């Protein structure tokens, strides 16, 4: 029987509460603007999905300590730092239904507070004092940065392939999901088989999550999604629905998409949305997300049966059903 994300969170309710408390404590700074922006982005924090994965993965391998709380906070700080930087790069004005920090306080402040969140993440991870934890998180942070640069390189490039797209999303999104899940195994000193299983689960889950995110950019409204319809098109980002629609259209419609990616903007948004529907691009992308979610669930086979493993499976299934 399917359950909601809210019900999944109840399984580790106390740990999530402890994580939220640590996040708020760690945001404390004697620099007022750091406090303002830090609290603004973390209190509008959305689902807390990545910290939830840390907590569930740790419990799924029978971890009984407290390091998972700190690492859940670390993952959330890294995630929010990337959001602050992303919104500057993308010149976004709406995030999770709220004005972006860069719109409220400006680009410079957003970038610098993003740096502060990274530094807080580093401070917390050193308190755990496990070298492999630091290696995994350092690698994830590096991969995210590379993913953002790759995405920048592919902006306004209608020649971007599906392979290019997957290279971007694996680095900028899925890598942090994978790291979040692997940490649970590492802090409980599990063998490489379990660690790799959780890592592969996180990677495929992250891919599914991002593909659905890109589908919603062409099928949700700003009130539901918390950002503007067609933002990716406006920024000239060739995401999977657009890549598929371009490859499967002809004549004027193909030229219209080609031009829209090249120049960005929403001049022909309605026509392009119709082409995306007519080519079956959204259904194709959803099918790709389904395949990724299935791979995520399959990756969990080496884990022993538990409520926490079932919760991880439910999250993979829920990733396909979300509308925001």
TrEMBL record:
Recorded superkingdom: Bacteria
Ribosomal protein in keyword set: no
Keyword RNA-binding recorded: no
GO biological process, any: isoprenoid biosynthetic process
Names of required cofactors: Mg(2+)
InterPro entries: Isoprenoid_synthase_dom_sf (IPR008949), Polyprenyl_synt (IPR000092), Polyprenyl_synt_CS (IPR033749)
EC number of this enzyme: 2.5.1.90
Gene3D superfamilies in UniProt: Farnesyl Diphosphate Synthase
CDD domains registered for this protein in UniProt: Trans_IPPS_HT
Stored Pfam families: polyprenyl_synt
Keywords: Magnesium, Metal-binding, Transferase
Catalyses which reaction(s): 5 isopentenyl diphosphate + (2E,6E)-farnesyl diphosphate = all-trans-octaprenyl diphosphate + 5 diphosphate
Molecular functions (GO terms): all-trans-octaprenyl-diphosphate synthase activity; metal ion binding
Family affiliation: Belongs to the FPP/GGPP synthase family.
Stored PANTHER family: ALL TRANS-POLYPRENYL-DIPHOSPHATE SYNTHASE PDSS1 (PTHR12001:SF69), GERANYLGERANYL PYROPHOSPHATE SYNTHASE (PTHR12001)
Function, in words: Supplies octaprenyl diphosphate, the precursor for the side chain of the isoprenoid quinones ubiquinone and menaquinone.
Protein name per UniProt: Octaprenyl diphosphate synthase
